[in-house]
Design brief:
Blueprint lengths: L3 H16 L7 E4 L4 E4 L4 H16 L7 H4 L7 H27 L1 H25 L2 H35 L6 H47 L5 H25 L1 H26 L7 H33 L1 H5 L10 H16 L5 E2 L3 E2 L2 H26 L1
Antiparallel strand pairs: 1-2, 3-4
Length: 389
Amino acid sequence: MLHSKLGRVMNLVYHHSVFFALMGTTLRIRSFKDTIRLDKLSRTYLLYSLFTSTFMFLNIYFMVPRVLLEGYIKYNIVLQVNFFVMIFRRLMSVLCCYLTIWLKRRKIIQLYKNTLIYWKRFRNIMDAIVNKQDLKDLQISLASTMIQEILVLYATFLFSALVQYQLLSVVNKWSLLALSIRLIHFLHFLAVKMGFYGLLILLNHQFMVIHLSLNSLHRKNLAKKRKALRSIATMHLETLQLARSTFGIYNVINTAVFIDMFLATINILYHAVQISNETIKSDGWGVVCGNGLILFNILGTLMFMEMLDKVVTSCNSTGQTLRQFSDQPSVNKRLQRELDIFTMQLKRNHLVIKICGLVELDKPFCLTFIASILSNVIILMQFDLKGQQ
């Protein structure tokens, strides 16, 4: 059972990905009838994907007009280096996204098929075991969380567009063209980040359904509790494998997302420092838009990190929910055997999300991520102090 509100939100995320050709193939989603069908890979979508990827790659050239280099960054070497680093990271992000889509298209389509098979196989388990009201409340909560993230992303885009327009030293067709291209790439990054966040929402939904199933199974006195517990254990293992497969396929794209988030936040905070010490001239509206950009950018990053931690925690804390079965006064041998098998399965299988197989994404990483941003901004501020001396 898929609530219509969550279905409409995920449909919106899906259309963002389709528009920027970030899907292996198109899907037909009908949230009201609870059906998701995989469409055939059409030649039209292949041509559209080729056109979009080529357009996003070639238009980076127009992001570097001479007018921008003669503006407020002309006498600041740090801002000049930062500007060309931004161009380079956008180039790498586009390459990472579309090379992954093209080189791993078959794996991505197979992932879609496996997801649909998984959904059809365990939908009956959810309907039979999980309380319908609890499932409804969970899906409405996740839909609200996804809507909040979408609003934060678009608010960040709006304030970024206003700030970048105010920072133009000369307004002509070339500077406006460069600004338009930068905003298109910002929307591309927004669609990638939104898709990543939507993926985390779906994974968190499935792991939370497993928790609801265990809680419901513990309260009910079912005659086939042993078979139900075995089905839940199978569902947890396949959800874990699906999560690992998904993060494995999109590993390069996920790495590009975190690099973009890191460098973009440093860029925003350093510009805020330049505006506060009046190195970059700005009026009252510029300060308001700049503060809004900082607020929504940090808020979006924190929400992203929080959802990432929720997915890992909801998967790895299933053993805590399973412990409640030990409180039952009488457990037959067959059920105890299934409990022991499920416990051993949970001990041997933990969800660990890494970028490039090196950095583990968990709570310490979130703190290190924020601390590294602040440290880099402080280091860049020292160049300003040295220049003033």
